[in-house]
Amino acid sequence: MGYALANAVDVNLAGTYSQAGQTVASVTATAGNVLKNVADFAKALDDGNAFGERFMPIPPFYHNYVLQAATGIIGHTGVPKTSDSRMLVNGFVGELFGIQLLLSQNVNGTYNQMAFTRGALALVMQLGEMEQVRREDRFATGIRALNLYGYKVVRPEAMAKCAVTAG
Prior knowledge:
- The chain is an alpha/beta fold.
- It is built from 4 helices and 9 strands, in the order H-E-E-H-E-H-H-E-E-E-E-E-E.
- The longest helix is centred in the N-terminal third of the chain and has 14 residues.
- The chain starts with a helix and ends with a strand.
């Protein structure tokens, strides 16, 4: 799947925010409160009986706050802390409170943050018409296809939402 298609699907799935069954209080995110915000999402999903793999797309500013909170930059001592997910060692966004954090450029500024389980959303994709085409930019053959997809929130209680502003 190409970047443009993946990005279009990502944007459409982000639009399901309004259908979330759980709500977390709005927050202006800072390095000092970002961990509490993720913990509040975990509690909201627990309250909705949403078990299984949990995911939360986050923008770059939120990721930066998570790194600052994890390293102790916000503390008065500034002593770095270690992370079990090795987030600080290899750049992996990581996991907090059982929620996998996924970096996304589709959430910036004031945005509608959501966390969900794999069972909250249904996404169906199918390649429709396919044909072989000659590439004009090089001596090669390519494939062109019509990708059909649809999505639906099937368990709203397994999704939580929160309005977040960068601090």
